[in-house]
């Protein structure tokens, strides 16, 4: 009886074309960003205290207010309502979404008429607008959302956010748009006295 293992060829090695490697890396980065986002959502859900009390109606004074009592979670998931470690965790998750999904797909070229700042996380208005955009994206691209969810997100959320974020007089107006000469500056906001809100 002869040994057939010497004559039977082994399986061919799996090869990926060089052109497909970039797509594969991009897909992997997006998948990893989504996994991190789901982890943040699970952490957020796990840390929220279970409460039998009904939530206040939208028109009540307590609706949307940040609860400052120790041990209680914030009344909102919006990043401006968070503080300390909760804010840092949310900003990290938002940064992953901005870097791995938002900018690669919707970043477009930087110019004086469409500025962007690499240090966007230091611009409070940009953080607020991007976080609101991300929250809407999570809701409208979820598997439970309707099939028109992504279209709604583009029309009602993305387009409006980009108009304000990348406007020549928007939050990045004072930041240099030339990559070889980066300049980052957060514009001053009116003092409370100027707004008629003296302390």
Layout: helices, strands, pairs:
Blueprint: H1 18-47, H2 84-106, H3 124-140, H4 149-165
Helix pairs in contact: 1-2, 2-3, 3-4
Structural class: mainly alpha
Low-pLDDT residue spans: 49-71
Integer-rounded radius of gyration: 23 Å
Outline the biggest β-sheet: none
Report the mean per-residue pLDDT as an integer.
Answer: 73
Percent helix, as a range, is 40-55%
- Beta content: under 5%
Task: Please report the distance between the alpha carbons of the first and last residues.
Answer: 98 Å
Number of helices, where a helix is a run of at least 4 consecutive DSSP H or I residues: 4
Query: How many beta strands in the DSSP annotation?
Result: 0
Could you spell the SSE succession in H and E letters? Answer: HHHH
Shape: globular
